[in-house]
Every structure is written in structure tokens, then in C-alpha cells.
């Protein structure tokens, strides 16, 4: 039993080849125009257009009259492609990657921590104490001065000499820490 108006199945290969021979070149040219000369995109859309034609066997009855149908399908495919691209957020591109910090592996962090601990251990207790207060507790020289009960100039002097000693030790260890 056949229902009128519903296609029974796909078009046979010879009919599709004939349809492509008659209209493939002109539809491809039309698609290149719509895609601003993007040959690969035009070929992809041409393939999709003829895939849809293959699924529409009634076109095989009058292949010479199928061009308006093919052009309409091709135009709708281009419109769908544009709509799909506009729905997606714009891609950032590779330029933004240069500004992202590089993730470091956990092993590197452990090695850096051990090296820094060794360098801190080589500082005198008074210099180490000032560095801990300023850089680990985030205190200003005035606050460190108040906490330790020493003059601000002494705090600054100890920090300066401690940082110089740390840099020297870390440079010897070939460790580069970001400032």
C-alpha cells in the first residue's frame, strides 16, 4: 500500500548522478558566491544539498526542473550555517593564550618549596623573622617594626639583606621564581 505524497525511499544512484551532472556545477558556483569564495565550505554545502536531493526521489521525475529546488535548499543551508555560527560565542583565538599563566606541575612546586625552605634556613633568625612577617603575613615595614619592637630602618635593612641572600642562594640553585 502506497500513501500519496510520501516518498518511498531514496533516489537511485543513476538518477542522482544525472541530477548532479545537470545542476552540480551551477549550484556549486552559487554556493561559492554565498560563502564569499570559501571553496571547502561550498563543497560541504553542495554535498549536503545533493544528499537532501537523494532523499527526495520525486526530483528524479523531472531533473531538468530541479534547479530551483536545489538552489533553495542550498540557500537555506547557508542561512542555517550562519545562524549556527552566530549562536556560538566568539572564539578568543590564540592571542589570549600568551597572557595566561602557565600551569606548573605539583613536582615543580614541591622542589621550589624545598629549595626556598633551604634558602630561608640559611638566613639569620632576625632576617628570617622580618621576611616572614613582611611576605608571609603581609605586613608593612611600620607594622613589622611595631610587632618586633625594632626601628623601621632596621626592618628595611634586614629585609634588603635577606632578599639579597635569598636571591643569591636561589640563583645558585638555578631556581627562577616570579617576582
From TrEMBL:
Keywords (A to Z) from UniProt: DNA-binding, Sigma factor, Transcription, Transcription regulation
Listed GO MF terms: DNA binding; sigma factor activity
Keyword Transcription in annotation: yes
Domain RNA polymerase sigma-70 region intervals: 19-88
Keyword hit for Membrane: no
SUPFAM superfamilies documented for this protein: Sigma2 domain of RNA polymerase sigma factors (SSF88946), Sigma3 and sigma4 domains of RNA polymerase sigma factors (SSF88659)
Occurrences of domain RNA polymerase sigma factor 70 region 4 type (ranges): 116-166
GO BP terms, alphabetized: DNA-templated transcription initiation; response to stress
Family per similarity comment: Belongs to the sigma-70 factor family. ECF subfamily.
Name of the protein in its database record: RNA polymerase sigma factor
Amino acid at each position: 500500500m502506497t500513501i500519496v505524497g510520501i516518498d518511498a525511499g531514496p533516489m537511485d544512484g543513476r538518477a542522482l548522478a544525472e541530477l548532479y551532472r545537470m545542476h552540480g556545477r551551477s549550484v556549486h558556483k552559487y554556493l561559492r558566491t554565498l560563502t564569499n569564495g570559501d571553496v571547502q565550505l561550498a563543497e560541504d554545502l553542495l554535498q549536503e544539498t545533493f544528499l537532501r536531493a537523494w532523499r527526495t526521489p520525486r526530483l528524479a521525475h523531472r531533473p531538468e526542473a530541479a534547479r530551483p529546488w536545489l538552489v533553495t535548499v542550498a540557500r537555506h543551508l547557508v542561512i542555517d550555517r550562519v545562524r549556527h555560527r552566530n549562536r556560538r560565542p566568539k572564539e578568543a583565538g590564540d592571542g589570549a593564550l600568551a597572557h595566561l599563566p602557565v600551569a606548573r606541575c605539583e613536582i615543580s612546586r614541591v622542589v621550589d618549596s624545598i629549595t626556598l625552605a633551604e634558602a630561608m634556613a640559611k638566613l639569620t633568625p632576625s632576617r628570617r623573622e622580618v621576611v616572614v612577617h613582611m611576605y608571609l603575613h603581609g605586613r608593612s615595614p611600620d607594622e613589622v617594626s611595631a610587632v618586633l619592637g625594632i626601628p623601621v630602618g632596621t626592618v628595611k635593612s634586614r629585609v634588603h639583606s635577606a632578599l639579597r641572600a635569598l636571591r643569591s642562594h636561589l640563583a645558585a640553585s638555578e631556581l627562577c621564581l616570579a617576582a
